[in-house]
Amino acid sequence: MSAVITKPDIRRPAAIDAPWLTAVLQSAGVDAVVKSFEAKNVGTGQIGESVRFKLAYERDAEDAPRSLVGKFPSPDDTSRGTGIMLGNYLREVRFYQQLAPRAQVNTPRCWFTDTDETGGEFVLMMEDLSPAEQGDQLRGVTLDQARLVVEQAARLHGSFWGDESLDDLPWVQGAKAAPASAVTPELVSGLWQGFRARYAERLKPHWIEVGEALTSRWSGLSEREQGPRTLAHHDFRPDNMMFGTPAGGHPVTVLDWQSFTYATGATDVAYFLAGALAPDVRRAHEAEFLELYLAELTRLGVTGYSMADLRRDYGVGAFQLFLTAFFASMVVVQTPRGDDMFMQMLGSAADHILDHDALAALS
């Protein structure tokens, strides 16, 4: 008789043992038994904690992985509270459970994921994508990497273009069934003013100009007519991607599905290009990337969306990057790298906003 397979429970990294890892693999159909493992933190996540588990087997199997990467709530109370308040943990688990199988974007294989009813505790056990390496917001990407990412954006958006069934899912931001957002105009304004005070010596005048306009006219942005809706990642940046290396790995894989929303897809394109490329490089290649994105959407069967429509939606897309930069910096644990990253995101977003005269859309 074969052994009874027990479904893994939800636990933090310190409580994980070999029998639990065995249950993860066996519940996914891998007939192997873990003897021992090594655990080491990886990544630079601000909201969650990621750990790589290198496995040694008592009973091996041909399809048994040599390692897994697990994602868990942040051990920092501030960051964990933010993840719960914004529904980030629950949202990511539901993505892998219900939406990832339909998405044509490259995502890691999910071996096991679950969350409690509150969304405060969760576990996500994923494929280890090494020797691919995590992107770096501060270093940016090459043009070849950017082309790969823009294609992935189109594949994600093409998978859910105009899919009104997303409106029925309460854990999808922007859906009709979703509860009222915790991100109110008052909260946005308060966080911006706190950000201005904390980082006063690092802020450039045109960054402040954009921040004041955006936060004082926040309702104008939320009420403006949007383009066609789809599933948008909403934090589409190099830190949330893995890139292949000369040693191997998938060319690009998109991670961190905590913030996705039912909204305009071109926001992801602007968010990525504004933040991942130097402004002069972005300006020189922007038209090429938009043509690539639209061509891939068309290949996937999207119709009725013109280049003029795309330019309109792309032009205001960097507002989300600007918002994320100052909002996140004030609600997660502060670190030197985080400070540098948020400054880079904010400044790049401001340049994009002014390049496209996007402030006019707020009036």
Protein traits:
Aminoglycoside 3'-phosphotransferase, Chain: A, domain 2; 5-stranded antiparallel β-sheet; 3-stranded antiparallel β-sheet; 12 helices
Number of domains: 2
Strand order of the largest sheet: 1-2-3-5-4
The fraction of residues assigned to DSSP E strands is 15-25%
Give unreliable regions as ranges.
none
Helix content: 40-55%
Overall CATH class of the largest domain: Alpha Beta
CATH fold node name of the largest domain? Aminoglycoside 3'-phosphotransferase, Chain: A, domain 2
Count of beta strands: 10
- Rg for CA atoms: 21 Å
Class from helix and strand fractions:
alpha+beta
Specify the number of helices. Answer: 12
What is the CATH superfamily of the largest domain?
Aminoglycoside phosphotransferase (APH), C-terminal lobe
Based on Cα principal axes, name the global outline.
Answer: globular
The biggest beta sheet reads: 5 strands, antiparallel
Descriptive overview:
The protein is of the alpha+beta class. It has 2 domains: 13-127, Phosphorylase Kinase, domain 1 (2-Layer Sandwich), CATH 3.30.200; 133-362, Aminoglycoside 3'-phosphotransferase, Chain: A, domain 2 (Alpha-Beta Complex). It has 12 helices and 10 strands. It has helices spanning 18-27, 77-85, 88-99, 143-159, 185-198, 205-216, 218-223, 266-276, 279-299, 307-315, 318-331, 336-355; strands at 33-42, 48-59, 67-73, 110-115, 122-127, 133-134, 229-232, 241-245, 248-254, 261-264. The strands form 3 sheets. It has a 5-stranded antiparallel sheet. It has a 3-stranded antiparallel sheet with strand order 6-8-9, covered by helices on one side. α4 (143-159) packs parallel to α9, α6 packs across α12 (336-355) and α8 (266-276) crosses α11 (318-331). The relative contact order is 0.13.
